[in-house]
Structure formats: C-alpha cells, structure tokens
Amino acid sequence: QVQLVESGGGSVQAGGSLTLSCVASGFYHSNYLMAWFRQAPGEEREGVAAIDRDDKITYADSVKGRFTISRDHAKNTLYLQMNSVKPEDTAMYYCAADRSGITYCQGGHCFEATRYNSWGQGTQVTVSS
C-alpha cells in the first residue's frame, strides 16, 4: 500500500526554523518526482519545492534561499528544511509523489498539483510574528 506520512510541523516564531519529514512506504520514492505543497485557509494549494529522480531541485520564488528540499534514500524519506520562516509561511504542508512514470519536471510544471497522484495527510506549520 502506497503511503506518505508527514511530520515535524508545529508552531515557531518568525525567523526560526523547522524541519518537515515525509516517510514513504509501498514504493521507493527516489525513483519518482517528489514535492512539497502548502495550503493556507481560503487559499489554493501551492507548490513549495520539488525534487526529481536525478535530484534536480525546483523552488517557488517565495521560499528560494530559505527552504531546502532533500531526501534520504536509505530511509525513503523526503525533507523540507525551513529557515527564516515568515508568518506568510503558515499553512498545512503536504508531501506528494508523481508516480505516473514521468520522473522529471521543469519550472512551473513542477507545481501542477494535478500531476501528483499520491499525497500525505499534511502537517500544520504556524509562524507567529
């Protein structure tokens, strides 16, 4: 059974750091395009960072230079290191996998939510000013 389970969310003050984890089971995530999305109340889901099968990384402009996506192949785990967080980073964060067989993406296509067919349940991040 394919499953993605996020953890690591919580409350943090602006300027602080947080690390999110996403453990994959039922498939080997290193073979696929993986991404982090977020959704704030009343807002659309937006892509934050993506990493393809060749470890090519794409970031949303809003997090570039502050967030880092990475993965541990041995632990089958995806990470999102969040530094210098801002109140506008407050959202539910989701891990997603594109298991369609297309293992790469480019630019904005990396953040088309409809291409991802496996999603975690989300972990809440709240940043206070």
> What kind of sheet is the major sheet?
7 strands, mixed
Structural class: mainly beta
Low-confidence regions: none
Q: How would you sum up the global shape?
A: globular
Query: What is the oligomeric state here?
Result: single chain
Into which percent range does the helicity of residues fall?
under 10%
The helix-strand sequence is EEEEEEEEEEE
- What proportion of the residues form beta strands (DSSP E)? over 45%
Total strand count, please? 11
Mean pLDDT: 95
**What is the radius of gyration computed over CA atoms, rounded to a whole number of angstroms?**
13 Å
Helix tally equals 0
Distance between the termini: 40 Å
Short description:
By secondary structure, the protein is mainly β. The protein contains no helices and eleven strands.
